[in-house]
Give the backbone structure.
Amino acid sequence: MFEKWNEIIIVNGIERHVEIRWDEVFERYCRIIDRVGLELTKQEDFSEKIDEPCIFCSRGKLAKFDEKFGVKQIENDNAFLFPNINPYAKYSSVCAFKKHYIEVGEFSPELIQSNLQLAIEYINKVKKMDDSVRYASINWNYMMPAGASILHPHMQVVADAMPTTYMRKASNEKFEKYIDEELKRERYIKRIGSIGLFVPFVPFGFNEVFGLIEEELEHAIEEIAKAVSSILSYYHSIGRNSFNFSLYYSMENEFPLHFRMITRQNMARYYRNDAMFFERLHFETILERKPEEIAKEIKGFLI
Ligand SMILES: [Zn+2]
């Protein structure tokens, strides 16, 4: 299950190493190379970007649900949810924090919980309205290097009768066996209530954390928020200010409820993107830190 091997390459008389790992669930390799500074740690001032006029701060201009949905937008103290003007699927919405700018280290469990509550309310609502809906995901691009087009923090909720490519691959009998095994291995981090956290053997990105949620989605909101907030505190502690998050939900339990989080490159002008030909055109992730090292580091952090 955890197959890996090493290549030794001599360059200019110096030994260089490439570790290749095989992910048998998603049928892909990843390569862990010697350190070359792939991950940006440098931080730049982007206050100019923070100060730009923001559409999410003008709620009157944002899209509204039609009468069939019942309310124009859903909201609570810290967040509001509205239809995505550029939908990705049959049901596609944006769940924004009310505050225009929040630093990575400032996302408290309460703040994240507010957003998740609205996202789950939306999923339950569309499920009631349309019984063909079988899959949903709650996703987050934080900052431009992670794919956000608007700096104001917001999650995106997608629900559909069709799975995404990832969900289709995750609906595989090897997946559950793999997760059970990871929870016993050295990459296991800790448990937060019903959530088991580990760093995958073959990550999809930098500093990845995988969270298995062994509880119904709506009963696990507080614990998910606590886990995500703790992981973000770790990202903040290692100087990262951009990340992606996805929570994957199969209403018919074709795969276990879980989430993945990765860091992306920091907000820096003329930065080097972390998705190059290997990631985009060969489906392989290039890393320079071993998952076991990350797990050990986070373990010491998430007390
Ligand atoms: Zn704003």
